[in-house]
Design goal:
Helix content is 32%, strand content 21%. The chain contains eight helices and ten strands. A hairpin with a 2-residue loop joins strand 7 and strand 8. It holds the Pfam family NTP_transf_3.
């Protein structure tokens, strides 16, 4: 079966206040987090778009489109970044991943895109251990106007968006059996210095990704 074409949107516009420095530029296992993500998603995506505050901080990234949020919605969090990416995408489907997810899986992203396409859903979002992960999810570009309306009304919560569109919530048990043991690490995000230390340890574990 032909894989559905999609654009990857990497959200790298956060302030990293708890980490104290740009999380995307931290090095884990000898590789910067942003390079890990680009290397993972470039081969399977039609295009990779990065949402950033300062494009000049990423001079070595080639073949990646670097965009800043629309002036109207600057500072409006990840929802604004998703909106910017969806508007720029040339494909119907997009995969969103946060830059603080160093072990994000390209294989799982492709599967979620297919889950979104199946049943013509607006989004496919994983839920693991009772928590949804909208910053590792598949989205159709047709929801861009819906997001714009939310942001214009001052509604920035991802949960509000997820609850107001046709979303497929995907449980761990819904995925192929060989995916399931790795969801903990794939969906884990790195926010603090202790998280960074844990990431260094996980990077030495060859079974951490799928």
């Amino acid at each position: 079966m032909t894989k559905t074409k999609f654009t990857t949107i990497i959200l790298a516009g956060g302030k990293s206040s708890r980490m104290g420095e740009n999380k995307a530029l931290l090095t884990i296992g000898g590789v910067r987090v942003i390079d890990r993500l680009v290397n993972t998603f470039s081969p399977i995506s039609e295009e990779v778009i990065m949402i950033v505050n300062q494009p000049e901080n990423y001079p070595s990234l080639h073949g990646v489109k670097k965009l800043v949020d629309k002036e109207t919605f600057k500072g409006d969090g990840p929802l604004a970044g998703i909106y910017t990416g969806l508007l720029a995408a040339k494909t119907d489907y997009c995969f969103v991943v946060a830059c603080d997810m160093p072990f994000a899986s390209g294989v799982l992203s492709q599967w979620l895109i297919e889950e979104c396409e199946w049943g013509d859903k607006d989004a496919a979002i994983p839920r693991h251990n009772g928590r949804i992960h909208p910053l590792f999810g598949a989205y159709h570009t047709r929801i861009s106007q819906h997001i714009c309306n939310n942001l214009t009304a001052g509604e920035r919560k991802m949960e509000t968006l997820i609850n107001s569109i046709h979303t497929r919530i995907v449980e761990t048990s819904d995925s192929p059996a060989h995916f399931q043991a790795n969801w903990d690490n794939v969906l884990w995000n790195m926010n603090t210095r202790s998280d960074f230390e844990r990431a260094q340890q996980l990077a030495n574990n060859k079974t951490q990704g799928i």
